[in-house]
Amino acid sequence: MSTDKPLPVIDHDSAPYWQAAHEGRLDIPLCGDCGKHHFYPRAICPHCHSDNLKFDTVSGRGEVHTFTIARRPAGPAFADDVPYVVALIELEEGPRMMSRIQTDDPEKVHIGAEVEVTFVKATDEITFPYFRMT
After folding, report:
1. Cα(36)–Cα(66) distance, rounded to whole angstroms?
2. I need a labelling partner for 15 at 20 to 30 A (CA). Which of 23, 57, 84, 127 fits?
3. Using one digit for the tens of pLDDT, what is the confidence trace for 61-99?
4. Within 13 Å and on the Cβ side, how many CA atoms surround 54?
5. Comparing C-alpha atoms, which of 99, 19, 17 is closest to residue 58?
6. What are the residue ranges spanned by the domains of the chain?
7. Alpha-carbon separation of residue 55 from 100, 107, 122, 124 (angstroms)
């Protein structure tokens, strides 16, 4: 992956997520009060507004809720990537997260496809959790 691509800004709320991805785990917030997972990492639970949160390692399995095939690059840094698939993944644990689907054939991706997480190193500090069809 090219390092001239934009990279995420890691903040206090998202640092554990990015550290886990770097270590090959998918960790997302879990509320200690209502017991629900959520994604994206943030300071309070979007379900009950509690700040009693911890990061929990989840299965990394889910299904494609919806997707698009990018046939034109989202800027010059992505020109070598097209076509690529951007999908909203519904994790087994409930939350949905936006990610890319790693595939040699974007036309085979479909709504309801079962996927599992895979990790793609972008830099020495950033590893992206992508998904692949199972």
Report:
1. 22
2. 84
3. 999 999 999 999 989 999 999 999 999 999 999 999 999
4. 6
5. 17
6. 15-133
7. 22, 34, 22, 22
CB 16 within 8 A of CB 30: no
CA–CA dist 128, 121 (Å, integer): 6
pTM: 0.92
3-class secondary structure, 103? coil
Tokens of 43: 């300071």
Query: Cα separation of 17 and 102, whole Å?
Result: 20
Tell me the C-alpha distance between 103 and 85, whole Å: 8
Give the count of beta carbons closer than 10 Å to the beta carbon of residue 129. 22
HSE-CB at 26 with a 13 A cutoff on CA atoms is 25
